[in-house]
Amino acid sequence: MSGTRTGRPAAVTGIGLVTPAGVGAQETWRRVCAGRPATAEDPELARAPVNLSCRVRGFDPRRHVGGTRPWQDDRFTQFALAAAREAVQDAALDPRGWDGARIAVVLGSAAGGIGTYETQHNKLMDTGHRAVSPLTLPAFLPNMAAGRLAIDLGVHGPVLHTATACASGATALATAAMLLDSDACDIAVAGGSDAMVTPLCATAFAAAGALSRHDGDPAGASRPFDAARDGFVLAEGAGVLVLERAADANARRAPVRALLAGHGSTADAHHAVAPRPDGRWLRAAAEQALARAGAAPADVDHVNAHGTGTQLNDGTEAAVLRELFGSGGPSVTSAKGVLGHTMGAAGAVEAALTALTVQRATVPPTANFHKPDPGTSDLDIVYGAARPQPVGLALSNSSGFGGHNVVLAFTPSNG
pLDDT per residue over 147-180, tens digit each? Predict the structure, then answer.
């Protein structure tokens, strides 16, 4: 690699996923690699302007969360609990035996328990204050998923919530890496979760012109980088990773999926919802991540793009990739063609997929990519089928309303 590393890499020793592609990391990975979109018509959005979504199918709180009253938690917390437990188990860790004071939880969410908020607000308006549940705030408050994870896992170290819109999960991972590097913890359970497939959210995004309206073709609605793209598909889910200092992971002979070798975070300071057209600060975030990894743009083999399927995002991101890497450059994929946009979970879900890409030397395809437009024609977008490819360095891009940009850099565990 080129350059001088400015931070210590964090080992990804565990991955847990709850997504529209499946409950569990393996189910999600298989469907994403198969390129089978999860978009479907959603009866619960029948009165919304757009009735398409990517929901997590087959998720049963009693089975996947357990306990005596899993319904007390909002769906976004339920997803986070299930994903975190899978990640901790995948890391070969037992919370009953760890020093909780040296464990951190960092969880991102764009909207917290918005489903609970909508339900209880409707009860208040329709029936009156006596109908409102006393559990409304513990279920709705955005920090409660992180708090519930701390209770569930016996964590007494830093327990933080990050909120940078659709970059929230990636911000959580960057924050966790900094906590590890500063010796504030020895293990970090970090990621993102959101359950924003609700009538209010669907209506609001549709009013903003952000959602795809391919109503006659649900499976083909989410089209990252395609010339016919017309918006994203609203989705839900969670992604949680276990991070440790690489030396600590090696000392306990932990299974290491990949190394989080660098991270960069910037703000556009341009517009509330639109990306800065020249992508200057997304590029700066990528350059920060590469500098921390001791790498240069020429070292990058793969980019897991934010790739929402909106005209503005994909056009801006494509321009940044061309500026960084030139024509062709590294392979590029977006998981949102399969998963839709999982909002605050997206950065963590896609970071997990990027780590698996590095570990398994396989790049999943971009579903529904058929024809590039002039702005995307010179990118090496993987489509049609998964591509076998050794990956020595991969970037995972995330952006969010408010102008947030986060880029994470991953390398193989032996790199």
Answer: 999 999 999 999 999 999 999 999 999 999 999 9
CATH of the domain at 201: 3.40.47.10
Task: Grade residue 415 by pLDDT with cuts at 50, 70 and 90.
Answer: very low
Task: Tell me if 282 sits within 8 A of 397, measured CB to CB.
Answer: yes
Q: Which of 61-70, 152-161, 223-232, 299-308 has the lowest mean pLDDT?
A: 61-70
**Could you give the CA distance from residue 306 to residue 24 in angstroms, rounded to a whole number?**
22
Could you tell me the end-to-end alpha-carbon distance of the chain, in angstroms, rounded to an integer?
9
Bridge partner list, 244: 11, 187
CA distances from 75 to 11, 56, 81 (A): 29, 10, 10
Distance CA(84)–CA(89), nearest Å, equals 9
Q: Does 260 fall in a domain? A: yes
Q: Is residue 171 part of a domain?
A: yes
Sign of CA dihedral 39, 62, 92, 161: positive
Residues near 346 by beta carbon (within 8 Å), at least 6 away in sequence: 166, 169, 192, 306, 336, 398
CA 305 to chain centre: 11
* Torsional sign, CA 287, 293, 296, 300: negative
- Domain assignment of residue 1, yes or no: no
Residue 207 forms part of a structural domain = yes
Catalytic residue annotation = 166, 306, 341
Contacts 24+ apart (CB under 8 A), 288-291: 288/262, 288/263, 288/264, 288/407, 289/262, 289/263, 289/264, 289/395, 289/407, 289/408, 289/409, 290/3, 290/262, 290/264, 290/395, 290/409, 291/3, 291/6, 291/262, 291/264
Give 348-365 pLDDT, tens digit per residue.
999 999 999 999 999 999
- Residues 6 or more apart from 38 whose CB is under 8 A from it? 19, 20, 21, 31, 54, 55, 57, 235, 338, 339, 340
Identity of the amino acid at 49: P
Report how many domains make up the chain.
1
Q: How far apart are CA 64 and CA 394, in angstroms?
A: 31
Q: Report whether pLDDT(221) > 70.
A: yes
Which is nearest to 368 in space by CA: 312, 314, 302?
A: 314
Judge whether 399 and 282 are in contact, CB under 8 Å. yes
Amino acid at 387: R
The neighbouring-strand residues paired with 239 are 17, 192
Residue 114: which domain range?
Answer: 10-411
